Automatic annotation (TrEMBL), chain A:
Residues 1-21 form the signal peptide. Pfam families: SBP_bac_11. One of its GO terms (molecular function) is sulfur compound binding. This is Sulfate ABC transporter substrate-binding protein. The lineage of its organism: Bacteria, Pseudomonadati, Pseudomonadota, Gammaproteobacteria, Lysobacterales. Belongs to the prokaryotic sulfate-binding protein family. Keywords: Periplasm, Signal, Transport.
From TrEMBL, chain B:
This is Sulfate transport system permease protein CysW. Part of the ABC transporter complex CysAWTP (TC 3.A.1.6.1) involved in sulfate/thiosulfate import. Probably responsible for the translocation of the substrate across the membrane. The lineage of its organism: Bacteria, Pseudomonadati, Pseudomonadota, Gammaproteobacteria, Lysobacterales. The keyword Isomerase does not apply. GO terms for molecular function: ABC-type sulfate transporter activity. The keyword Cell inner membrane applies. It is found in: Cell inner membrane. It comes from Tahibacter soli. One of its GO terms (cellular component) is plasma membrane. Its main location: membrane. The chain crosses the membrane at residues 20-42, 62-88, 100-121, 141-161, 201-227, 247-267. It is a multi-pass membrane protein. Keywords: Cell inner membrane, Cell membrane, Membrane, Sulfate transport, Transmembrane, Transmembrane helix, Transport. Residues 65-272 form the ABC transmembrane type-1 domain.
UniProtKB/TrEMBL annotation, chain C:
PROSITE patterns: ABC_TM1. Part of the ABC transporter complex CysAWTP (TC 3.A.1.6.1) involved in sulfate/thiosulfate import. Probably responsible for the translocation of the substrate across the membrane. It comes from Tahibacter soli. The chain crosses the membrane at residues 12-33, 53-82, 94-116, 128-152, 181-202, 241-262. One of its GO terms (cellular component) is plasma membrane. This is Sulfate transport system permease protein CysT.
Length: 332, 287, 272
C-alpha cells in the first residue's frame, strides 16, 4: 500500500512546496486570452520576489475556457489563484466552499486589476460600413461571435448588445430581446470559444465583423495582420471585468497564502499595470491609463451591475437553460 | 501473398476492373487522408525548417512529447493483455451473455470523449465518490498522470480485442484443440499456437491502440488541468499553441504525432517484409 | 465441437470482466447515478427539449450515414489493399490509420482549413453550390474521417486469412465474379464488416473535437449532442450533462447490442 501510494504521489506531480523553502511554485488557473499577459507578469513577479525575499517562485499557468477552468478547480485542480473571465465562474468555485463568498471585496476595484470592453473587428476599409451596434442587424451582415452557452467572452458580447438596445431611445426589455434576436440571426457560425471565433473570422474569411474583447481584437490585429483588419469602437459597450481571487482552501493547505497575495497585489502595481496595457488590457491605474490612452479608443461603458444587477441575475435570466438566449434560438 | 496474385496472370478484362477499383480507392484516400495530412505539414513548414525545429525544441513541446509517450507506454500494454483475454473468452467458449460482453467491450467507442473524461471526474474529482478519501490521503489521480492514463485506457480499450475477435472467430479452434490433444499445457498452446496465429491482427490492434492513445484529445482534456509543461499531452499542447495564434508551432507538434503514427506503421511494414515468407506459408489456412 | 478441451475460460473471462468492470462499468455507473440524482421528472425535462431532439437527430442521423459510407468505401479499400499490387500501396496502407493518430482537434482544424470557402477544396466546391464547412455536411465529413479506419482495419485481417481456394472453386464451378462475391465472400466478410460498421457508427456519434471546428454549432441546425453536454457543464449542471450522456450511451449501446446479435445470426448463416 505504501509503495503504491508513494508511486502515485511521484506520478502525480505533487506540487509540494513549503513556505519556508527557497523554491515556491504557484498555480494560476486562468482563461484563454491571458496567456501572453501572464507570461510577462509571472516573469516580472518572480524577478521582484527573488530580489525582495530571495526565494525562487515558479508560477505554473493553466489556460482554457473560463467555465471549464472553474470546473477543474471545483473538481480538485489545486489552483492557488484563479484569474477568470467572469465573476460568475469564481462565484461557482466559492459556492463549493473553496473561497469566501465575499472574495470580490478582498482586492481593489471589484478584484479586477485590469478591464476590457467589447469592440468590433472588421475587414480593412470596413466594406460594410459598420459603425455601431445598430448596423450589425442589417440584412446581409454576417456577425461572428462564440456561443454564449460555452464561452464567457461571448456572454460579454451578448450583454453588451443587450445593454446598447436597452439604452436606445424607447429602449425596453422587449426591444432589447428583439435586437439581440436579430443580431444572432446574422451569426453563421457559433464557435465554442473566443479564439475559435477569431480563427473563423481571420483564417477562414467568414463574416463581416467579429465581436471580441478589445484586448483580443488588438492582439489579433497585431498577430494576424495590421493591414487587413480595423477596429471599430461602438458608441457604447460593456465594461468587461475579469476578476482575480485567492483560493483560500488551497493556499491554506499548501501554505502559499503570503506569496499568492503578493502575486495578486503585484497586478495593481504600476509595473504590472504597464504590462497589462502593453497586452491590450485597460489598466486601472490612472497614470498608466493616461500613458497608454492612445492604444485604447474612447468608448462609453456600462457595468454589468448597473444594467443587469450582477452576474448571477444575468446568468439566470439570459444564459441558463430556458433563458432568453435559448428562446432566441428557438424563435428561428 | 503478392506472389499468388502474380502467378494468377489476370485476364485483360480483370485488369481494367482492378484499375477502376484501385483508382477509386486511391482517389478517396488522397482526398480524405493525404490532403489533411499535407495540410498539416504545409502549415508546419510555412515559415521554413528553422521555425519548425525551433517550435519542436521548445521545452514545453518536449515535455508534452515525453508525457504522451509515457501515457501511451502505460495504457497500451494494459489494453493488449485485456484484448487477448477478452478475445480468448469471446471466441473459444460459448456462454450466456456473450453478446452483452461484446457490446460492453465496444462501449468506450460510443462514449463521447467529453463524457469519458467526465466519468473519472465524477469518480475521483474533489466532488466525486472517492474525492474526499483521495484528498485525505493526498493522492492525486485527476489533473495528474494517473488521470491521463485512466482516460486513455478507457478510450483505447476496445482496439486490441476488436481486432482479434473477428480473426480468431474466422480461424476456429482446431489447431489449439489439436495442440491440447497432443499434450501441450495451456500456456504452451497459447504461446506456440494461438499467439503466432493472431500476431498480425494483434500487431494491428496494438498499433491502432497506440496511435489513438497518443492522439486522444477530448477525454484527456477534461482530466488534464492544462498546466503548461506539466500535464499537457501533445494534442493538448497543439490546441494551446493554436489558440496562441502560433500556427507553425501547433502544426509542428501535430506533424510529430502524424510522424509517430507513420513510424509505427513503418515498423509494421518492416516486420511484414522481414517475416513475409513465414506469413505467406501460413496464409492459405482453411476453417 | 469439443470446446471443453480448451483451457483458460475462467481466467480469461474473469480478467476481462474485472477489467471492464473497473475501467468502464464503474465509471459509467457513476455517470448514471449522477443523472439519476435529478429524479425522474428532472431527467425527463433535461432530455426532452426540442433542442436535444434536434441534436439527437443530427448526431445519430449523420453518424449512421457516415457509417454506411465508411462500410462501402472501407470494404472496397480493404479489398484493394489486400488483393492488388500498385505503386504506393504500402504508403496508402499506412495512411489508413491517420484519423486515429491525428488528434481530433487537429483533424478538425485541418478539415475546416480544407473545406472552408477559402480552403483548398472549399474554393472549388463553393461555386458548385456545395457548402461543407459550417453546415451539416461538415458534420458528416468529420464523422466519415474519424470513423474511416474501423471498417478497413477490421476487414483486412479477415481478408488476408480468407481461403482463395473457395473463390477459385466457385469460379471453376461457373459462378460469375459478382456471384462469387455475393454468395461466397460476402457472407464470410459480413461479421467483420458489421463490426467495422458498428465501431465507425459508435465513434461518430460521440465525436466532439473534430466536429465542433467544422460544424458551425448553430442551435437546431448544426449542434451535436456532445456539444449540449459541454453546454450543461458550462452551467455547472453535472446532473443534466450526465443525463444527456446517459441517453446517448443508451441509444449507442442498444445499436451495438443489436449489431452484435445480427452478427451472431450472420455467422450462423455463413456457417450454414
Amino acid at each position: 500500500m505504501r509503495s503504491i501510494r508513494s508511486t502515485l504521489t511521484v506520478l502525480a506531480f505533487a506540487f509540494a512546496a513549503h513556505a519556508s523553502a527557497a523554491d515556491i511554485t504557484l498555480l494560476n488557473v486562468s482563461y484563454d486570452p491571458t496567456r501572453e499577459l501572464y507570461k510577462d507578469v509571472n516573469a516580472a513577479f518572480a524577478a521582484q520576489w527573488k530580489a525582495q525575499k530571495g526565494d525562487n517562485v515558479t508560477i505554473n499557468a493553466s489556460h482554457g475556457g473560463s467555465g471549464k477552468q472553474a470546473r477543474a478547480v471545483i473538481d480538485g485542480l489545486e489552483a492557488d489563484v484563479v484569474t477568470l473571465a467572469l465573476a460568475y465562474d469564481i462565484d461557482a468555485i466559492a459556492e463549493k466552499g473553496y473561497l469566501a463568498a465575499d472574495w470580490q471585496k478582498k482586492f481593489p476595484n471589484n478584484a479586477t486589476p485590469y478591464t476590457s470592453t467589447i469592440v468590433f473587428l472588421v475587414r480593412k476599409g470596413n466594406p460594410k460600413g459598420l459603425k455601431d451596434w445598430g448596423d450589425l442587424v442589417k440584412p446581409g451582415v454576417e456577425v461572428i461571435t462564440p456561443n454564449p452557452k460555452t464561452s464567457g467572452g461571448a456572454r460579454w458580447n451578448y450583454l453588451a448588445a443587450w445593454g446598447y438596445a436597452l439604452k436606445q431611445p424607447g429602449g425596453s426589455e422587449a426591444k432589447a430581446k428583439e435586437f439581440v434576436t436579430a443580431l444572432f440571426k446574422n451569426v453563421p457560425v457559433l464557435d465554442t470559444g473566443a479564439r475559435g471565433s477569431t480563427t473563423t473570422f481571420v483564417q477562414r474569411g467568414i463574416g463581416d465583423v467579429l465581436l471580441a474583447w478589445e484586448n483580443e481584437a488588438l492582439l489579433a490585429q497585431q498577430e494576424l495582420g495590421k493591414d487587413q483588419f480595423e477596429i471599430v469602437a461602438p458608441s457604447i459597450s460593456i465594461l468587461a471585468e475579469p476578476p482575480v481571487a485567492i483560493v483560500d482552501k488551497v493556499v491554506d493547505k499548501r501554505g502559499t497564502r503570503a506569496v499568492s497575495e503578493a502575486y495578486l497585489n503585484f497586478l495593481y502595481t504600476p509595473q504590472a499595470q504597464e504590462i497589462a496595457a502593453k497586452r491590450y488590457y485597460r489598466p486601472r491605474n490612472a497614470e498608466v491609463a493616461a500613458k497608454y490612452a492612445g492604444t485604447f479608443p474612447k468608448v462609453n461603458t456600462f457595468t454589468i451591475d448597473e444594467v443587469f444587477g450582477g452576474w448571477k441575475k444575468a446568468q439566470a435570466a439570459h444564459f441558463a437553460d430556458g433563458g432568453v438566449f435559448d428562446t432566441i434560438g428557438a424563435a428561428k | 501473398m503478392n506472389e499468388i496474385v502474380l502467378s494468377r496472370r489476370p485476364s485483360k478484362a480483370r485488369v481494367s476492373w482492378h484499375a477502376v477499383l484501385i483508382a477509386f480507392a486511391v482517389t478517396f484516400l488522397v482526398l480524405f487522408l493525404v490532403l489533411p495530412l499535407a495540410a498539416v505539414f504545409v502549415e508546419a513548414l510555412r515559415k521554413g525548417v528553422g521555425a519548425y525545429t525551433a517550435a519542436l525544441a521548445h521545452s514545453e513541446a518536449l515535455a508534452s512529447i515525453r508525457l504522451t509517450l509515457l501515457v501511451a507506454a502505460i495504457s497500451v500494454p494494459l489494453n493488449t493483455v485485456f484484448g487477448l483475454a477478452a478475445a480468448w473468452a469471446m471466441t473459444r467458449f460459448d456462454f450466456r451473455g456473450k453478446a452483452w460482453l461484446g457490446a460492453f467491450i465496444d462501449l468506450p467507442f460510443s462514449v463521447s470523449p467529453v463524457v469519458s473524461g467526465l466519468i473519472y471526474v465524477l469518480l475521483f474529482g474533489a466532488q466525486g465518490w472517492f474525492g474526499p478519501w483521495l484528498a485525505e490521503h493526498d493522492i492525486k489521480l485527476i489533473f495528474a498522470v494517473p488521470g491521463l492514463v485512466l482516460a486513455t485506457v478507457f478510450v483505447t480499450l476496445p482496439f486490441v480485442a476488436r481486432e482479434l475477435i473477428p480473426l480468431m472467430q474466422a480461424q476456429g479452434s482446431e489447431e489449439e484443440e489439436a495442440a491440447r490433444t497432443l499434450g501441450a499445457t495451456g500456456w504452451q498452446m497459447f504461446f506456440r499456437v494461438t499467439l503466432p496465429n493472431v500476431k498480425w491482427a494483434l500487431l494491428y490492434g496494438v498499433l491502432l491502440c497506440n496511435a489513438r492513445a497518443m492522439g486522444e484529445f477530448g477525454a484527456v482534456s477534461v482530466v488534464s488541468g492544462h498546466i503548461r509543461g506539466l500535464t499537457n499531452t501533445m494534442p493538448l499542447h497543439v490546441e494551446i499553441l493554436y489558440n496562441e495564434y502560433d500556427y507553425v508551432g501547433a502544426f509542428a507538434v501535430a506533424s510529430i504525432l502524424a510522424l509517430l503514427a507513420l513510424v509505427t506503421l513503418a515498423v509494421k511494414t518492416f516486420l511484414e517484409w522481414r517475416y513475409g515468407a513465414e506469413l505467406a506459408a501460413r496464409a492459405p489456412r482453411g476453417h | 465441437m469439443a470446446r471443453r478441451v480448451l483451457p483458460g475460460f475462467g481466467l480469461s473471462l474473469g480478467y476481462a470482466i474485472a477489467y471492464l468492470g473497473l475501467i468502464v462499468l464503474l465509471p459509467l455507473a457513476a455517470l448514471a447515478l449522477k443523472a439519476a440524482g435529478l429524479g425522474f421528472s428532472g431527467l425527463w425535462a433535461a432530455v426532452t427539449t426540442p433542442r436535444v431532439f434536434a441534436a439527437l437527430k443530427l448526431s445519430f442521423g449523420a453518424a449512421v450515414l457516415s457509417a454506411f459510407i465508411n462500410a462501402g468505401v472501407g470494404l472496397l479499400i480493404a479489398w484493394v489493399l489486400v488483393r492488388y499490387r500498385f505503386p504506393g500501396k504500402r504508403l496508402f496502407d499506412a495512411l489508413v490509420d491517420l484519423p486515429f493518430a491525428l488528434p481530433t482537434a487537429v483533424a478538425g482544424i485541418a478539415l475546416t482549413a480544407l473545406y472552408a470557402p477559402n480552403g483548398w477544396l472549399g474554393r472549388w466546391l463553393e461555386p458548385l453550390g456545395l457548402k461543407v464547412a459550417f453546415t451539416q455536411t461538415g458534420v458528416l465529413v468529420a464523422m466519415v474521417f474519424v470513423g474511416f479506419p474501423f471498417v478497413v482495419r477490421t476487414l483486412q485481417p479477415v481478408l488476408e486469412t480468407l481461403d482463395r481456394d473457395l473463390e477459385e472453386a466457385a469460379e471453376s464451378l461457373g459462378a460469375t465474379r459478382v456471384q462469387t462475391f455475393l454468395r461466397v465472400l460476402f457472407p464470410l466478410l459480413l461479421p467483420a464488416l458489421l463490426t467495422g460498421f458498428a465501431l465507425a457508427l459508435a465513434r461518430a456519434v460521440g465525436e466532439y473535437g473534430s466536429v465542433i471546428f467544422i460544424a458551425g454549432n448553430k442551435p437546431f441546425e448544426s449542434e451535436i449532442m456532445p456539444l449540449l453536454i459541454v453546454q450543461q457543464l458550462e452551467q455547472y449542471k453535472y446532473g443534466e450533462a450526465a443525463a444527456i450522456g446517459v441517453v446517448m450511451l443508451g441509444i449507442s449501446f442498444a445499436i451495438l447490442l443489436g449489431i452484435g446479435l445480427l452478427q451472431r445470426w450472420s455467422r450462423r448463416w455463413a456457417e450454414r
